[in-house]
Fold:
Amino acid sequence: MTIEGKTALVTGGGQGIGQGCALALAKAGATLVLNDRPGSAELARTADQIRALGGKCHTVEGDVFCGEVRERLVAEAIDKAGAINIFVSNPALNIRRPFLEFELADFERIVAATLVSAFHMSQLVARSMVSAGRGGKIVFVSSVHAEMPFANNVAYGASKAGLNHLAETMSVELAPHRVNVNTIEPGWIDTPGERAMSSEDVLEREGKKLPWKRMGTVDDIGDAVVFLASDAADYITGATIPVDGGFRFRHCAPGSSE
Structure:
């Protein structure tokens, strides 16, 4: 599943799942254009990691949550790399709070950051792909939250569900242009964000309760992205692929009580 000669734009690529996707794509032969917020030290470190592997990497700083920034980002990415063949849309925002207490402004902010930004960035990239006439690959990083109604996550879950439907609709409209559009749903993944909320002992203990007996890793997500970005997935579009080690069905095994 090599993708030699392809250029991939990864948003939110400085750390966590975005970083895992970027490193996996670089190892598979892609030239990377990495995006993260202005002044991100993580962005510089990830770019250095890719170059240390012998890969090519450009960086484009900018907050994709801001509408006026997105057109500049895509134009800058194309200017630096020549074209975008693969787009991985990764950033999101979450605030956990009971539905009855959720502020409207926070709901709108999460939808804008998670769904609206993905729509606009993918539209801009897709236009460049269609104009170039060489097809392309678009992969959205969604979440099992899109299908599972977790309490205190109403805005995030609704945004991710909308993201899945966005991808399906895009896949229908972009099929004549040979642009594959697919979605990955990570389960419980070991990321810096998770480690900020839980200790190593908690993550190890809870991971053992999952069907695969471990937490997911950013490499697991990166490997799935490489597959969907490769020619091996040429006949896959409009698909939603959970990469969760069975997280969605963890209560279904015989004898399972939690």
